[in-house]
Amino acid sequence: MTTDTPGAGPAPTAVPPRVLTVAGSDSGGGAGIQADLKAMLALGTHGMSVLTAVTAQNSLGVQGAWELPLEAIRAQFRSVVDDIGVQAVKTGMLASPAIVETVASLLADLNAPVIVDPVGVSKHGDALLAADALDAVRTKLLPVATVATPNLDEVAQLTGVRVTTEADMPSAAAAILEFGPRWALVKGGHLRGDAVDLLTDGAEEHWLRSPRHDNRHTHGTGCTLASAIAAHLAHGMPVPEAVAAAKEYVTGAIEAGFPLGAGIGPVDHAWRWR
């Protein structure tokens, strides 16, 4: 039998792994840092954020976007990392060459896995990365990535490789790896048939498949997947296991996606709790 010491208060709470998202804000809550923080919470981590841009966004698209000053981005990053610390970082919307280069330089000396989601366009086709920022992504950001998670449109933007069948995916992944990330996760969700992704480090391949779903409410899938990978890495999982667990989580979130507004609704980050 144990008794509490008078005045001692409650026992200290265990500190969850800490995960940082460096990305833009989605005012509609479906993607961006809002999706990232929801996924991080759902997967048992403490989410933190560095805002790079603010968007006016809803289920129909992006109505406006405004970049934050580089000084504000640096200050947010240093405030979080120097005091709280991080076990993993995820990047999303970086918008401009200057922001890409600033974030890459901040991440270069960080002793934590980095998941790079090279966001180019929104789910609705709105540009979220300036065309002249692509070279900075290739030469500055991808080299610091533990895992890069491009979809097929982003692969084409970055490498010129166009994937039309599953057989094209290994060459696309190889082209991404040439820019320096340790692992490439090429997301083949735009292909016909099952949703198939390829994870490779150039030496081993891991194919991840899930049945094609009919739910059209898929806003935030890329942000959610990258954040889920970061969360699982923060828990100490090896990359292949972290990616597989993240794929399982996001598949459930897509299947549970719900209508919101007049356009494409979000995935359900809390699907395991419903």
UniProtKB/TrEMBL annotation:
It catalyses: 4-amino-5-hydroxymethyl-2-methylpyrimidine + ATP = 4-amino-2-methyl-5-(phosphooxymethyl)pyrimidine + ADP + H(+); 4-amino-2-methyl-5-(phosphooxymethyl)pyrimidine + ATP = 4-amino-2-methyl-5-(diphosphooxymethyl)pyrimidine + ADP. CDD domains: HMPP_kinase. The keyword Membrane does not apply. Residues 26-268 form the Pyridoxamine kinase/Phosphomethylpyrimidine kinase domain. It comes from the Bacteria. The keyword Nucleotide-binding applies. One of its GO terms (cellular component) is cytosol. Its EC number is 2.7.1.49, 2.7.4.7. NCBIfam families: HMP-P_kinase. Catalyzes the phosphorylation of hydroxymethylpyrimidine phosphate (HMP-P) to HMP-PP, and of HMP to HMP-P. This is Bifunctional hydroxymethylpyrimidine kinase/phosphomethylpyrimidine kinase. It comes from Streptomyces buecherae.
